[in-house]
Amino acid sequence: MLVAALLSGLVLGGTYALVAMGLTLQYGISRIMNLAYGEMIIAAAFLAYVMFSTLGLNPIAGLLIAVPAGFALGYIVYGVMMSPLVRRARDKASLEIDSILATFGLLFVIQGIMLVTFGANFISYSYLNDPVTIFGTVLAANRVLALVLAVVFGGGLYLLLTRTLWGTALRAVAVNPAAAPLVGIDVDRAARLAFALGGGLAAAGGVVISMYQTFTATSGVVFTMKALIVVIMGGVGNLIGALSAGLILGLVETFVATYVDPGLTLAATYMIFLAVLLWRPAGLFGRVAR
What is the pTM of this model? Predict the structure, then answer.
């Protein structure tokens, strides 16, 4: 049972880390608190469902459509909604408030479209729902694939941000947006690309989630909250922190559900979150400003 709980926790934690990486880019680099992030995830899950059930396109191939679509959506949303807010914002605090209000409205627009299109019923489909034995523990193949995809996307994004000039520019904007223009970095362009990249990662997370979880048009708020908890726990803008915090959260929820009570998983999540806020306000891997 211990190995089964550990593997299930890694699968869940890998999913949390994947969906949180996009939000940490949007909040850490673009300075946008995107409350519609979960709706973007669920929209991608519905897209994967439609492609699989009507076109016979498996979710792996569907990623080739969903991820660019999420990137394009993020790019457009930033250009149309966020860019004017950035230009008129007096400081970081006012931008956060304006972005919260704007994306809160966007949340209901996306959710309303999904409700009209798909209804309020729970949706799922069967893909690679075959047993796989790992270390003597039987898991569904789609869950194992979800963990592999989370590792691939996380590793790829880490290499992109740490091994390329473009990634270095994004990290420079995250650290000090005021000084970045002094070395020739276009902050607005970097912020737009980071927001769009976050949209692409949200789409990837939605496709991965759709492979092994049921979802509905109103499920987005849950994933927004989980992603926000992971981002704050790991440290805003810290990719390794988001990956680690996501895995920790998934393991804790799984162990609490297995050994204590499934009804206490949400309580355990928020207890950890509150503990981090009290003892490490900058996050587990964040640095306290001096």
Answer: 0.89
